[in-house]
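job 3f2a | input accepted
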Amino acid sequence: MKRTALYTAIMLLTILLASCTGNGKKSDAYGNFEADEVIVSSQANGLILHLESEEGKNIPAGSTVGVIDTVQLALKKEQLITQKDIIRAKTKNIAAQAEVVKAQKAAAERERKRVENLLKDDAATQKQSDDIISQIGVYEKQIKSIDTQGITINDEIRALDLQIEQLNDQIRKCYIVNPIEGTVLTKYANAGEVTAFSKPLYKIAGLNDIYLKVYISGDAVSSVRIGENAKVLIDAGNGTMKTYDGTVSRISDKAEFTPKIIQTKEERISLVYAVRIKVKNDGGLKIGMPGEAVFTGM
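job 3f2a | predicted structure (298 res):
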């Protein structure tokens, strides 16, 4: 009987020590782990030709994981390029016309000087001088008209360039690029399905850094500071706790009622503040897993 009582006392002491931290202090707050999640959505309309976003798969940031059909966009781009080539051909013709008229004007200018010299010697009439000056004016108007046509054509080419660039942007958005390094949590679409702009394709979360979200009372929040170190504990089995080093990354600036899943009914009437603790994940921490926190300032 004495051995049984001694054995029972040792077990109770072990459980008591396991429920405390290494320095004998009980945890200051309790909560669950979460991660920064990103829902990757389609930026284009069309048939999904390829999509690699299997749940549980780790995807590097910046990698192309899928593509949406670009045939119609590519055909429209080719049409615009053809129109641009046709207009460029017109530009060459206009430039040739301008050179001809400028040459005619230059010849008329030489003729005007010759007539002026003859007029001084009474070898030409005033009408001949007036006619040549009038002809030069016609050539100048023709040159201005041709220049205006050139400006209009350049504007048309510029408008086509902008349309082509818009299509290039739309084609680029048909390629699904993963925004962050992380693990796929949920897959919403598959290859062979038709998607639309802003339709979710998959959800991904970076799990290298994970966060324990806990709640502390209003009278204790003043003891916690952003950037301070904290100890994060999880159940390691057999009544033991595993400890991680963490850093307080965010403290809510507004009080809220204690979430139902955290506390008892009586405690839910109290106002608390949400606190996020950043922890380096060694692979053992999962989203939704319960955890405990010990703050150095409390």
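job 3f2a | Residues 1-24 have pLDDT under 50 and may be disordered.
job 3f2a | closed
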